[in-house]
Amino acid sequence: MHARIALLGGDGIGPEVVAEGVKVLRQVADRCGHTFEFTEALIGGRAIDETGNPLPDATLAACQASDAVLLGAVGGPKWSDPHAAVRPEQGLLGIRAGLGLYANLRPVKVYPALAGASTLKPEVVAGVDMLILRELTGGLYFGKPQGQSGSAPDREAVDTLHYSEGEISRLMRMAFDLARGRRGKVTSVDKANVLASSRLWRTVAHEVAADYPDVQLEDILVDACAMYLIRRPADFDVIATENMFGDILSDEASMLAGSMGMLPSASLGAGRERAGAGRMGLYEPIHGSAPDIAGQGIANPLATILSCAMLLRWSLDLPAEADAVEAAVDAVLADGYRCRDIMTPDGKLLDTRDMGSAVAERIGKG
Ligand code: IPM
Ligand code: MG
Hints:
This protein is 39% helix and 21% strand. The chain is α/β, with parallel strands linked by helices. Helix 2 (44-51) crosses helix 4 (88-98) and helix 10 (302-314) packs antiparallel against helix 11.
């Protein structure tokens, strides 16, 4: 197939890890007879420096003209002044909203070879294989009014947690559909004992559940969920939750896998009515721009490479190619290759480029 992929390297280690993702995608294209056309565009701090805008119109247009978007990371100390009018993160929120990407999939899987890399006991993290499904374009991140007013000592600030029934039901439907292809369990996470938006969330979750009698639904309050993620993480299958809760719980859950450097994500919108194409999606590692190690060539590219596997599966409808990338990552880890963040006592340390090459070399090998 022929596919167009927009590349938004962004800031810090973003461009370094995206380069390794592209290396792997080129290998997939060569081995499997596809052509992938890559277009680079600006986002985040670099876009602010070059255009004054964290999400230039040309970037959104390039993404809209593509079948999928691969993003590195945005942000860094240079742009983190809380008084600044423009911030790199606005680019990320803008592209999520601009492309209508309401569902954020964050799979958390513990690789047996890396069980020792987690700070939790190996017997607690053994068998962890969950999918956090985070609502991405509603809630506190986008609700209006939002802002600060007044002057010292009477300053005030407000954020608004708003959800419509439609926003909740489309996310919950995706959660149930995904659970059908997994272990058949959805955990809906809310704060229904306090928040009106969470009571609507829980009501709609149960209404949607009526259409999925084969899938089990449980409700857990967000504070309890934070506790169970550490105590009995292997019990979770699909966790469906609102934007802010999902942001926090997914960082917590990432520690089960030992490092954020291992965790991919996909942000999906509605399906596209085009032959041979899947859903429009944006794919990114869940880690940030890591300015402390940027430019040193030591970042772990596996989260980005695994995000490319999700891109192949969800936006290009190439499940066999996605499986091949994931199998190549498994093989590299089983062979003992590591980056610094997942180093184990007997591991063989690789830098960013060599790790990308190690995965690429294994694509298509039996
Ligand atoms: C994430 C990040 C972003 C978020 C930030 C950078 C705006 O933390 O993708 O989880 O809060 O959504
Ligand atoms: Mg986050």
